[in-house]
Amino acid sequence: MEFGRAFTFVFDDPEWLKKIGIAGLVFLIPVIGSIVVMGWGLEITRRVIKNETALLPDWINFSEYLPKGFQAFVVGFAYALPLILLIACGQGATIAMTFAAASSNTDAAGPIVTVLSLCISCLFIILGIATGFLMPAALGSLAARGELGDAFKFNEVIGLVRAAPGPYLMVLLGSGLANMILSPLGMVACGIGMLFTVAYTSAVSGHLSGQAYKAAKALHSQTGAM
Length: 226
Prior knowledge:
Layout: H1 5-8, H2 16-26, H3 32-49, H4 62-104, H5 109-145, H6 154-163, H7 165-188, H8 192-223
Helix pairs in contact: 2-3, 2-8, 3-4, 3-5, 3-8, 4-5, 5-6, 5-7, 5-8, 6-8, 7-8
C-alpha cells in the first residue's frame, strides 16, 4: 500500500480546492449533507479499486452520491450496531446498579459497578477494533460491486481482513491520524476549516479503503485462501 499517497493524491487534481470546498459546503446541508459526502468518499474508493486515473470526483453528478452515501450509511450503522447496543446496555446496567446501591444502602454494589464498567470498556475496545477492520472491508466490497448485499457477505468481508490485516490496520490508523491532526486544525480556523478537513478526511479514508481492498484481493488471488 502507498500510505502517503492517500494523503497527497487530492493535490494532484488541478481543481482540488474547488472539489474539497464544495464537499465541505455540502456537508453543511442538514441530514443529507453528511450522507452525500459519504457517497462522494465511496466513489473515491471505487475509483481506486478500478484503477481510474481521475480519483477525486467532481460534483457534476451530485445526485449519484446520495444513494451511494445512503448505502454507506446503512453499512456503517449495521457494523457499528453492536457497539451502540453495548453502550446502551452498559449505561442501563450501570444506572440500574447505582440506583440499587443507593436504595439498599450497601457498599457491595460499588465494586460491582466498577467491575461491570471495566468489563464493558474492555469489550467496547475489542468490538471497536474489530469494527475498525471490518467496516472498510465491507465498504470496499460495496464500492467494488455496487450492491448493498455484498457488504453483508460476512464470510467474504472477514476473509478480506484475514487476507490483508496489515493494509486494513493502515486504513484504521490513517483515518484516525487524519481525524486527530486535521480536526483540531479545522477548529482553530474558527470552525470554517472544519468543513474542509471533514471533506479531506473523507477523501483520505476512501483512498485507503480502496487500496486495502485491492491488496486483499491480490493476496487472495495469490494464495486462494478466501
